[in-house]
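so i finally got all the pieces together for this one. its two components total, 756 residues if u count the protein bits. some of the lines might not be protein, just check the labels. i wanna see the whole assembly predicted at once instead of chain by chain like last time, that was a mess tbh
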Amino acid sequence: MAQIKYHILVCGGTGCRASQSEDILKNFQELIIDKGLGTEVQVVKTGCFGFCEKGPIVKMMPDNTFYTKVSPADCEEILNEHIIKGRKVTRLLYTDPETKEQVSDSKHMEFYKKQIRIALRNCGFINPENIEEYIGRDGYQALGKVLTELTPDATIDIIKKSGLRGRGGGGFPTGLKWEITRKVKADQKYVICNADEGDPGAFMDRSVLEGDPHSVLEAMAINGYCTGASKGLVYIRAEYPLAVERLKIAMRQAREFGLLGQNIMGTGFNFDVEIRYGAGAFVCGEETALIHSMEGKRGEPTVKPPFPSESGYLGKPSNVNNVETYANIPVIIIKGAEWFSAIGTEKSKGTKVFALAGKINNVGLIEVPMGITLREVIYEIGGGIKNDKKFKAVQTGGPSGGMLTEKHLDTPIDYDNLIAAGSMMGSGGMIVMDEDDCMVSMAKFYLQFTVEESCGKCSPCRIGNKRLFEILEKVTKGQGTLEDLDKLKNLSNVIKDTSLCGLGQTSPNPVLSSLMNFPDEYNEHVVSKKCRAGSCKSLMQYIIDPDNCIGCTLCARNCPVNAISGERKQPHIIDQEKCIKCGACMEKCKFNAIHIN
Amino acid sequence: MAKVKLSEKKLAELKEVCKFFNNEKGELINVLHRAQGIFGYLPAELQEVIAKELNISVAQVYGVVTFYSFFTMTPKGEHPISICLGTACYVRGSEKVLEEVKRTLKIQVGDTTPDGKFSLSCLRCVGACGLAPVMMVGDKVYGRVAPDGVKDIIAEYNN
């Protein structure tokens, strides 16, 4: 190992794999052998770097050069130039959009500057399929410390003092949950990891499991020691095959190293982990529903109490935490509660991982200290709105969250501020919308999701959300009335108050928050029958401006329903009866002659 | 509906799977995952067999199969196409991509083309939001799909 001079880190996250990072990895491995560099250069497949917008990403160590948008064909040049001749391949470096300067070290990129990586500390650094790399970065040290130096109560005390709150969305104090599970007496207890990431547009749990699976296993073992459980269960979506694969490898390696199984580290502590598969049901992110699903039943929630900490899997006390929550635990044990609680705001400590997506320049996975503002996230880390459009709203908390606007941009992000603003932290999806997004349609989009995902057990959620969706559909078709807007609000509040579980209690949030923050837009839809974003098809007309139209016939040739007529070199006309409002004509027009009325 | 004739060989394989899980009713979801892996889908006749093996009612099996979106009772096409309708893809125009696929293949979501070549479904987030909008054909992920690029993608599989 001593003679390895270079490590080439290739991102093996889902986004980069979809852009051929597997081929990049293979090319590097083959070329290194061809060029006789096998003793000097090592290629490592890592977890997600976070900067998915610029993927596939290749990072050269030790000089930290960060190559973006690499293609399999670039491998040879990187090896020849960077490794052999010692020159950077400048065309693959990241160019700062502001200064137009090339930045080779990720530390100096706006995207990374404000980030603090705790849960994602190892993602993009280590090979997740090799336990030795995890151990090399202090892995399993926290478990060792807990087992040999600390009592369960002392360990729980550290977690309590750190101020860590559940990262799955609820924000319940983690240490307290552990303590409750510890106090219940039972012959068998369970440690459950909730990896059923169902929020469309959030992929942090997946990235942690793909990039650093051992951190979750280590934390589950620590939890087992604290609560008195000898069995752990990871409930993971079957749609995440790569995460499942890496978790399995990690479990096998941990067993080989004596870090899972019987008599861990010779201390007499026994703990092992099993995987349970989800099968695609959003409601299973709710802990009681999750437990029923693990028992092989329909994933329907039940009334709490009893909480899973008292009566969970197979009726036994079960501690349910989310992936990201667990990923924080080993660091807190090693670095201490004071270190962790120094980061963040008064009531929300530490960092939060967000999946930044939508109409933003830098899509990716970010980890930022609590208390950062939306403005910093969107404009500094996210690099602003795509195509220089105007910012309109940001949805946090997925389908259960709300739409926040310009006026919330300077609010520090933490659990309580987001709830006060009518949204929530949720699991950490953050979808940015611009002026082209219609807020009524967005609310309808989220409601459609809820309607599909409602388990049907309680009527407010099953029937109420369906009615909400129908009213929203009426509004987007231009058939809504002012009375409907009142109905939306009242019905939303009833659903929130009377639903059985978190799904129904939060599902009207997108409706309520958009009604509150964008009342004008709703009014326009029902009163003047207009959609200012131009996204509600029934309310719009494509019109050709005769002054700009030169009669090139391009639009007429591309119209799928032959709705456009006109002589060559004469202004064309769209037949509104025939028009299906697909927008193909506007996309094709080179003269900016077609616009939406 | 005509009864589906299940292959004896596959049935034997399924019974092995059930045995592997100790014919334990709590393992129903694991068994269904494997069963769908073996048969490609979960027709009613198959659910009857599973119910018998795990000693539970067919209604219980059916209840679970229909509850979870991952399980399907209709066979998928040779090349299953999935369009991501997660929020990130939605705001970047995946609905238009979906419309284009529907138009090109002349099928609706949940259907399979008459030649059995393609089936169409929607999914919520594959975790590749940086590439939105995303469409999948089999296990291959296509990123930044424009509606007029759909034809070329489908053509890749159409010969």
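Residues 8-67 of chain B form one domain.
Residues 7 and 153 of chain B are 33 Å apart (CA to CA).
anyway lmk what u think
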